[in-house]
Amino acid sequence: MFWLQQARDEYRLNRIAQLFDSVGKAISDESFKQWEGLIQLLGSDSKTAGRLDFLHKDFLSSYRDFKKSLQHVYDGKTTDTARQAVESLISLMKNPSTPQRFYLPLLYDSLKLLNWKDRPVLNVSQTNLLLTKLQDLSMARLLIESELPPEALNSVRLALATNLGHAILEE
């Protein structure tokens, strides 16, 4: 990969990125260690790697934190755990290394947070940020490529709109 970067071979780097996309959908703690090792091998020039721009240590650690806290939420933990998951999600969405093609899967994975029963765990500004990211996706026309179920986009939109209404009433 280093030599492909040096040669600026975008085609082959993008093919490798597609492979990482499919592998990345089932990331475990052990595979995170392998990814971090790969990042160290790539060095600081990995920014030039086309679609591999998400392979940055800050993105991977944020993604790992998000997945762990989200798992705790699905295991039935408290509202505080849900707020931690929200903070990780917001961090990921604000991270410039997070590719737009990850936005909808991240939001779809977060449906339980967006539909939190007791009270909204996202405030108005956080919800607006997520709505803006979803709008960015629509404008970039990246929604068509998604491997998610067809109702994913509508589920996320409805959950964000509902959360926004609840957050406005809460504040």
Automatic annotation (TrEMBL):
InterPro entries: Nucleoporin_Nup85. GO terms for cellular component: nuclear membrane; nuclear pore outer ring. Component of the nuclear pore complex (NPC). One of its GO terms (biological process) is protein import into nucleus. It comes from the Eukaryota. Belongs to the nucleoporin Nup85 family. It is found in: Nucleus, Nuclear pore complex. This is Nuclear pore complex protein Nup85. Keywords: Membrane, mRNA transport, Nuclear pore complex, Nucleus, Protein transport, Translocation, Transport. Functions as a component of the nuclear pore complex (NPC). One of its GO terms (molecular function) is structural constituent of nuclear pore. The keyword Transferase does not apply.
